[in-house]
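Reopening this ticket.

The earlier resolution said the output was attached, but the attachment link was broken on my side. Pasting everything inline this time so it's all in one place.
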Amino acid sequence: MSDKRIDNDSMLNEPAAGDSEFDTPAQPGQESEDSIDELVSETDRLRAELQESKEKYLRLVAEFDNFRKRTSKEKLDIIQTASKDVVVSMLDVLDDADRAQQQLESSSDPDEIKKGIVLVFNKLRNILKSKGIKLMKAKGEPFNPDIHEAIAEVEAGKEMRGKIVEVVQDGYYLNDKIIRFAKVIVGK
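Inline output:
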């Protein structure tokens, strides 16, 4: 038994298996530290990209809001300018109507008065036509509920059945869009 006795002192001085200068294994946790550093740098990069994307999104939203406000303002300006143009054109007709009224008061010649009034109305019609207003032809046409408003039906004979016998109020188009329906009497 004494032969198998272990010498503690010799064991302490002998190198263990795999313990050499060239076989030093990596310290535990060194590989995981490298991968953690990579993950941290990747996370930082992704955070920076996300922040940049958020900033781009906020700028885009702000630009769109500004665009919406600007186009809304421009639309309002266009509507007001269009109205101004029509009103200014109508002022000429108003001036002519005032002159016609003065002529009515001072003149006794009915033919002259009639000619003056016809000229004023023709000028009014021409101005409205130049602005895109067009009279709706209705009398004698077949009744169309999409463009006519029937206010009455009258006996009118076989040839006028379903057709417009009388126009009570003219209808008008503005650039081929109906702005006022014609009020008509339809034959039955």
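Reporter confirms the inline version is readable. The domain at 133-188 is CATH 2.30.22.10 (Nucleotide Exchange Factor Grpe; Chain A, domain 2). The chain is about 55% helix and 15% strand.
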